[in-house]
Amino acid sequence: MKIMIASDVHGSSYYAKRIKQVFEQEGAQLLVLLGDIYNPGPRNRIDMVRDYAPLEVAATLNALKERMMVIKGNCDSQVDTLISEFSFVEEGALFVGGKRVTLTHGHVFDIDRLPPSCGDALIYGHVHTGFIAHKDGVTVANPGSVTLPKEGTAHSYLVLNEDELILKDIDNGKIIEQDKIR
User: Is the overall model pTM greater than 0.85, yes or no?
Assistant: First the structure.
């Protein structure tokens, strides 16, 4: 199963549409969003978000509701469910290629705070920097932020295909990094 994983849209209709386009181009069967879907959050100004339009983001993502898993982020609130035709869950887990992958936003668990029994991999968003690493026998990855990348990183997303993780630039499709879940 091919899975596309993105995070931290923060209300950008431009990047929500890019996510949908890239999801279809990738031929993935499932889209996982790791939170912070509509709101820019307290440290980001609305003018930092390209084409800030939460209702357009909702319309774009609602069209994918049958093929999505959405993790609740620290900027997602109960009121967001009023414009969403999909559910937000606190955490998720997938079994792909014989590996258990734990999915979370990243404001509670991250590379420095691995959840108990997280399995073979932990994938989280929140920090807006994409990477693939290994710690204490766990593969840890972050898709970065499609909308507001930090530390000079690209607008990025992950592809999970069996036991392989591929970090890609959402603007040009170039591979930034790739590795296996060990």
Answer: yes
CA angle 118/122/128 to nearest 5° reads 145
The per-residue pLDDT for range 103-146, each reduced to its tens digit, is 999 999 999 999 998 999 999 999 999 999 999 999 999 999 99
What is the DSSP pairing of strand 164-169 with strand 156-161?
antiparallel
Number of residues written out for the chain: 182
Residue 143 parent element (H or E): strand 138-143
Q: The tokens 């766990």 sit on which residue?
A: 138
CA angle 133, 166, 51 (to 5 degrees): 105
Phi-psi region of 51 (alpha: psi -120 to 50; beta: other; left: phi over 0): left
Q: Is 103 helix (H, G, I), strand (E, B) or coil?
A: strand
- How far is it, in rounded angstroms, from Cα 6 to Cα 18? 11
Has residue 46 got a pLDDT over 90?
Answer: no
Under a CB-based contact definition with an 8 Å cutoff, are residues 99 and 133 in contact?
no
